[in-house]
């Protein structure tokens, strides 16, 4: 079981995560505390779950080899080397290309989920978190390259897991990505093709999700691109934002 009563946070200076109330989370973060990811299971990203992202493909969605829009969720794994927490510094591999910053709702699984119905899906959810799903900008959709999505630090998670009982409707949450000095990018979980319950049901129809696993709802279309030196925050609803920065790789001369 992955269970929490309120908000789960794992401060970088502490060996274990703890369950605290929303006020304590705010106080800890206001003091500038860095955090580890508050969930440590497998993270599954979801592609083409945003209506605008699918629409942007146009006729290409009907081209070979698939010849139709996907009928099942298109998933990929963010391996452990990608995990980073609140206030992390993430290396930009090529500053000319930059790094696309996808802000996604992370659905944290509370108990083993296999062949779950839509009606019962929420009973398998422990809570929700913010996931910064980063990637090198690319055009490959159905077969995303590991080197684009699995760089070190390319999955920033946190700062906390918010218990399910605190989130009345995960399918109507505002997502705001702010890169210092630029206009914020605003999206909403309501634009998802599969909502949270349907996504859980469709994924667990062909694979089992374990306690502590994180299933992302997907990255909104048009997510912004960040470069070396950028300070980024991602907020979902009224939760404390997830913050991190972009830095040059060692020996880059910056």
Automatic annotation (TrEMBL):
| Pfam families recorded | FAA_hydrolase
Keyword field: Hydrolase, Isomerase, Metal-binding
Which Gene3D superfamilies does the entry mention?
A: Fumarylacetoacetase-like, C-terminal domain
GO MF annotations for this entry? Answer: 5-carboxymethyl-2-hydroxymuconate delta-isomerase activity; 5-oxopent-3-ene-1,2,5-tricarboxylate decarboxylase activity; hydrolase activity; metal ion binding
Respond yes or no to whether keyword Hydrolase is given for this record: yes
Reply yes or no: does the keyword Transit peptide apply: no
SUPFAM superfamilies of this UniProt entry? FAH (SSF56529)
**Fumarylacetoacetase-like C-terminal domain boundaries:** 42-240
Q: Which InterPro entries match?
A: Fumarylacetoacetase-like_C (IPR011234), Fumarylacetoacetase_C_sf (IPR036663), HPA_isomer/decarb_N (IPR012686)
Q: PANTHER family of this UniProt entry?
A: 4-HYDROXYPHENYLACETATE CATABOLISM PROTEIN, ACYLPYRUVASE
Q: What is this protein called?
A: 2-hydroxyhepta-2,4-diene-1,7-dioate isomerase
Q: Which organism is it from?
A: Paraburkholderia hospita
Q: What is the lineage of its organism?
A: Bacteria, Pseudomonadati, Pseudomonadota, Betaproteobacteria, Burkholderiales
């Amino acid at each position: 079981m992955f269970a929490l009563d309120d908000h789960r946070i794992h401060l970088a200076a502490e060996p274990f995560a703890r369950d605290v109330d929303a006020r304590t989370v705010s106080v800890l973060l206001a003091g500038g505390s860095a955090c580890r990811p508050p969930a440590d299971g497998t993270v599954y990203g979801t592609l083409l779950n945003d209506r605008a992202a699918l629409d942007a493909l146009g006729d290409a969605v009907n081209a070979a080899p698939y010849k139709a829009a996907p009928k099942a969720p298109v998933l990929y794994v963010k391996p452990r080397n990608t995990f980073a927490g609140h206030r992390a510094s993430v290396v930009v591999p090529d500053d000319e290309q930059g790094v696309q910053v996808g802000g996604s709702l992370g659905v944290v699984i509370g108990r083993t989920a296999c062949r779950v119905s839509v009606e019962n899906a929420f009973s398998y959810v422990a809570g929700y978190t913010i996931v910064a799903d980063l990637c090198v900008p690319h055009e490959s959709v159905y077969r995303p390259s590991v080197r684009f999505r699995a760089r070190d630090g390319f999955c920033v998670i946190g700062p906390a897991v918010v218990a399910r009982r605190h989130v009345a409707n995960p399918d109507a949450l505002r997502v705001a990505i702010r890169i210092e000095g630029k206009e914020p990018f605003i999206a909403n979980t309501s634009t998802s093709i599969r909502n949270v319950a349907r996504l859980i049901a469709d994924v667990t129809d062909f694979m089992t999700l374990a306690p502590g696993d994180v299933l992302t709802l997907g990255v909104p279309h048009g997510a912004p691109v960040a470069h070396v030196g950028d300070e980024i925050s991602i907020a979902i609803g009224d939760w404390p934002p997830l913050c991190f920065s972009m830095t040059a790789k060692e020996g880059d001369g910056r």
